[in-house]
Amino acid sequence: MLRIYFTPEDLTRTRISAAQPMWEILLSLYRLRQRKGAPVHEEWRRSVVTKTPVTTRLLTDLVPQSGYAVDFLTPMTNQLSLADGLEAIRSTPKRRLRKDLAILAGGRQLPSWTTSLADGRKESVVQLADAVDRYFASCLAPYWDRISGRINQERATQAKLMADGGFERLVQALHPTARWHYPVLEMGYPVEHELHLGGRGLQLVPSFFCQGLPTTFLDGDFEPVLVYPIQHRPGWSAVDGSRGSLASLLGRTRAKVLEAIGESPCTTSEVARRTDTTLSTASQQASMLRAAGLVTSRQNGQSMLHTVTSLGLALMAGSFS
């Protein structure tokens, strides 16, 4: 369980971040190595796994598939740019490198190259920053407009929640495990962890590649952040040709309806709005998708709520055979 302790000042200093390249780099490394991960990331993983630079091993050495990943790989910068993040890595103090690597080791032996990194040798720190840069260029840059665009949509949604319902409405909607009882926000977390804001405020970081539970820095001395997963449309990484194949298989309108429902469960009226079609067209196409086993529908008050099935997800992710 993660417990975040607020003061009155922290309530007014909570803000919602735009896309953070360094966090997306780190979290995408988990998705890259999950062969049985969420279908929504599977097409991306398969498309980049053969293009991943060999220097990415330096990053995976510091980001195990489970447990602690070094905090210095995700510096928080005001400009939110990749260039600023890389410069922050190059400027990481020796004491920070040593502290994080000692925590990562946890009684086990790290790869030999990390010894020079722990010593703060410039060539090792520069080599690491270059590996981060190359990984981003090969695996994230081709999709960055889509990733940052979806995060910006989420940011706007969260800002509206706060404007309409206040801070309590915002934090309760961050994650299914979120529980707010002033002055403590509780959320699901792999271990017991407390974060005392102490008037510094909290930066909420909606993340595209975060999956499952939220995350934050282990060290409470860092700027307080809460990184949490957002929903996004399956098939988001498909190249134009792949999207065209889905349209060829289902028809353009039906493919749009399937992708709209795949974005998140929605009513027929919401499907019509998302696809810019009429209510009758949305209803008809949803019925056809339901008959094909690609969506399920259930009564929700006066409306019908549609949800994409695992078969529909696989089709959009390109793993259908």
UniProtKB/TrEMBL annotation:
InterPro entries: ArsR-like_HTH, HTH_ArsR_DNA-bd_dom, Metal_resp_trans_reg, WH-like_DNA-bd_sf, WH_DNA-bd_sf. Residues 244-320 form the HTH arsR-type domain. It holds the Pfam family HTH_20. SMART domains: HTH_ARSR. SUPFAM superfamilies: Winged helix' DNA-binding domain. Gene3D superfamilies: Winged helix-like DNA-binding domain superfamily/Winged helix DNA-binding domain (1.10.10.10). One of its GO terms (molecular function) is DNA binding. Keywords: DNA-binding, Transcription, Transcription regulation. This is DNA-binding transcriptional ArsR family regulator. It comes from Kibdelosporangium banguiense.
